[in-house]
């Protein structure tokens, strides 16, 4: 059944043919049945007509005499047999005929054709009868009309018999004449009629199937063109596809397919143009993503270096803050002691005016040192600015400590000269000298830590050099102040005035140290934030680097896909314009 799977036309023809054959078969069977019924009725009528005609040829007077026949030698029997043979010969289709005299259930044969001489005996009772045979004969006698049996079988064959009642000269029914017809003859008549009917049905069926084949072929001719066009489209050939325009469903389908092919041509052309643009864009994207990837890699490396530097700066800043805290504690002690001495020397403040002028010059020089430290602050940013302020106050503390140490030494000398009256000042001068030495030591440690920070910047070194120059100038003025105090050491009041200056300077040192500590604390927080920001930027840069690498790989894959798309598009053959 492969031909059915490959052809819709064959499927349709086969399906309709099966339906038509089935209808023809049913109609033929019904027709045959109708013919059979008609033939049966016609044959029955024919048999009755033959039986009646035969009975009419028999003389009732002879029949009355025939009732008394005893054997086949009786003259009346012989004459009757000759008549029956003559009728048999004239009719031609009957097998034989016979005359029965029926008495209840007993049957006596009183006449028959010569071809029954071996079966029947004239005037004798006949017992070898079929049931239907006897029943139909009795029915004919009872009804007084001809009756026909259905086909039946007896020991002599298959038959169909017509019985016609016979009347004697008195008009009384005394028996029947029976005429047997062979069932083969009857069946042959029916078979011939059936064969004719089947031949007519087959001929009509063949003609109808041929007409069906012709009609389906004509209907499928446009469809075959559609299939051919679809095959060309399936192979990628979209050029020069034309169809015949009709108004039926296949014509509408042809128009729709032709419209679809035109749309497909336009779509493939657009895809081809888009594919070319995509290939160019993917190449450009790949190049740009590669450059961006390299740049992002460089930025990531630099940011990692910045993060490392920020962590180192944070560590150094924490160490500096710790040292400044320790220095602030020492300076606070100096301030407290100086304040106590200043309270005790309030009475001699008027005698130290000249020493105050010298100390004022020292303060002015310290301002110059502060300006130099400001230059360092501008050079290294906020971190170096705070460091400059620290070095400014450290230098100030150092100068004040040196001056305080010198003044304490001079005060001790003058107190010794004063004798018993200067012992109290000698003790105070010794305490001041010790505090000045502690301040000088703390200031030295702070200078070492600040020096580590300042070494990170060339600008810081230059600013530090300027600071050192100003410190030298400060030392010069300090020496001048020492000479002036040498001239006024004869007066204890000068010592008191100098101690007041020390107290004021100690307070300034304490305030400056607190300010430096606050600045260093701010620097530490800023350094921590900077380190944290550097870490976040480093992580973001790494993520961006991964994204750029993904973009580069995607652009490469996009280029490959565009090349594959162009290869696929080349398989389509479009109509040249």
Automatic annotation (TrEMBL):
SMART domains in UniProt: HAMP, MA
Span of domain HAMP: 217-269
Domain of life: Bacteria
Transmembrane feature ranges: 12-32, 198-216
Keywords: Cell membrane, Membrane, Transducer, Transmembrane, Transmembrane helix
GO molecular function ontology, one term from the record: transmembrane signaling receptor activity
Matching InterPro entries: Chemotax_Me-accpt_rcpt, HAMP_dom, MCPsignal_dom
Subcellular location: Cell membrane
Ranges of residues in domain Methyl-accepting transducer: 288-524
Record has Cytoplasm as a keyword: no
Stored Pfam families: HAMP, MCPsignal
UniProt-listed GO biological process terms: chemotaxis; signal transduction
Gene Ontology cellular component annotations, sorted alphabetically: plasma membrane
Predominant place of localization: membrane
Stated family: Belongs to the methyl-accepting chemotaxis (MCP) protein family.
Name of the featured protein: Methyl-accepting chemotaxis protein
Organism of origin: Caldibacillus thermoamylovorans
